[in-house]
Amino acid sequence: MFTGTYTALVTPFRDGKLDEEALVSLIHAQIEAGVDGLVPVGTTGESPTLDCEEHLRVIEIATREAAGKLKILAGTGGNATQEAIHLTQQAEKLGVDGSLQVAPYYNKPSQEGLFAHFQAIAKATQLPIILYSIPGRCHVAIEAETVQRLAAACPNIVGIKEAGGDADRVSQLRHLLGSSFTILSGDDGLTLPFMAVGAQGVISVASNLIPAQMANMVRAAAEGRHVEALRLHQQFYPLFKSLFIETNPVPVKEALHLQGRLALDLRLPLVPMNAEKRARLRQVMDALELLPS
User: What is the spatial distance between Cα 146 and Cα 114, in angstroms, rounded to a whole number?
Assistant: First the structure.
């Protein structure tokens, strides 16, 4: 259901407030480039620093502007179960296609706690749910056996964004869950390795900048055009790495700012990169002809 390339959309700000004009422009660029869907207000969208009204406003704009041309997988997870339920139910009313549910962060629940958390959310909505395992941020992984239990107990839990950096885990998930369960890479640089062992696409940071190229790479891999997919991977691998020289989404916002597409405005505690890292990013973008002439 949610296969292909999904852009983990940044949230543009200007003078500390949501920049709706820039957001609409970014969304239209994604539609024109042919990605399969958008993920508003995920980690890349600075979701922890948006209040509830802002969070839902970003989802509303994305859903309105997409107008059925691509799917909206709304980031409505959280470290408090009731908050995640509220955001998910409100997003459902806005007409999104599905919900991305990150593992609760900071409170570090047990596997039983994770099961109860996601089960409660799944029971509170009819939306399809994609789980999001990212132990580097949450300090807890959704173990493969827990994913299997959740998929069996909750028919609307239909997939997972896997951001643990381990292709073997993708193999394990595919073995346990079968071909109907969606697995998406959570790391641009690991998209091809993950797809080689059973993933079906990516939720991408880089596609904020290169949506058509990411969509082409993923489609090539899915259709067995491995030489073409590898060529695109190798071409843009320096960018994949450069977008994580500092905490996401700092570099990708810097890159979009260098292209003149949004103000370099981050929500504290995130701050812009230093001059040395900015120069490194600019060098990579210049080599890939991603800077305005």
Answer: 8
* pLDDT tens profile 54-113: 999 999 999 999 999 999 999 999 999 999 999 999 999 999 999 999 999 888 999 999
CB burial string 265-275: b at 16+ within 10 A, e below: bbeeeeebbee
Active-site annotation holder among 69, 93, 108, 132: 132
Radius of gyration of the chain from its Cα atoms, rounded to whole angstroms: 18
Give residues with Cβ within 8 angstroms of 30, minimum separation 6.
7, 9, 38, 70, 207, 211
Judge whether 132 counts as a catalytic residue.
Answer: yes
Active-site annotation holder among 6, 71, 161, 253: 161
Q: Is 106 assigned a catalytic role? A: no
Q: Please count the other Cβ atoms lying within 10 Å of the Cβ belonging to residue 133.
A: 23
Contacts of residue 48, Cβ cutoff 8 Å, sequence gap at least 6: none
**258-39-220 Cα angle (round to 5):** 80
Give the chain's residues under pLDDT 70. none
**What are the φ/ψ torsions at residue 75 (nearest 5 degrees)?**
-75, 105
Neighbour tally for 240: CB within 10 Å:
20
- What homologous superfamily is domain 4-225 in, according to CATH? Aldolase class I (3.20.20.70)
Q: Which residues contact 56 (CB under 8 A, 6 or more apart)?
A: 87, 90, 91, 94
Q: Hey, which residues does 132 pair with through a beta bridge?
A: 102, 161
243 touches 252 (CB < 8 A): yes
Annotated domain spans of the chain: 4-225
